[in-house]
Amino acid sequence: MTPENMKKVVDLCNQISNITYENLTKIIRLEQTGSATGARKLDDSDQNDIDSWMGGGTCFSMTWHLYQALTDMGFKPRLVMGHKRKERNIHCALILPDPDDSVVTPGQLFSTNVTPTSVLGSVLSSNSYLLDPGYLIFDPLQMPLPQPFGTGEAFFPLSPNCVRLVRPTLESMELWTGGAGAPMKLRFEYPVEGVSVEEFKHHWNESFYREMMTYPVLNRLDREKGIQYYYQKGNLVVRSSTGSQMKRIEPADRVQTLSDIFKLSPAIIEQALQILEKKH
Length: 280
What we know:
This protein is of the alpha+beta class. Helix content is 31%, strand content 30%.
């Protein structure tokens, strides 16, 4: 990728790197509209208002915002879904083919006698990048090619979580993360061919009814300090390059503490918590 194009991508990633991953606004929108489709269309990122949308959202909001912004800049990103064990389509990310690189078909990687459709139904760049803002990865990660065409994996010493991309086959890629001496764990598997906008929005709608919408989930990365803050079910985890600490946040302190750490309005936090309490 040319330095000019890479700068555009990196600047965009930096622009959204202060966003909090949170499901609170998602919970509020579902309560207000009564339907996943209505709630999704209320999402600020669905309107792609770059100047005003810098609040928060889940992987779908962040990925969709990035997809629209990159498309508007002339790139051709692909929406991809992430699978975890037996759970399908519970995460999403982007694959960004290098517009300045030579474009090859999977068939050409093997043999000129093999048709592309016999391996994978789309044309792929031999040099592509994974963008995964929903997992708080705000760096474009160059994807490895599977053996024997490449190394089969690539390691990125990010902080506080290092990342390994593993490419067992041309059709798939795995995301592994770890940190502070902890073993690497498989997080998601991505079919690299990607999905259509229609299928992506279908999975986005389904996400409103998953189990994780029954409790607050907040996740924020302080890139300058290399610290990750993660809150779920009353517990706050603070992760740095030296390790992780977990503490319980008492109900009386939740609104103000979460507002200070995750840079969200106390009113939004309180409204979402009240909705969840009514459902339990």
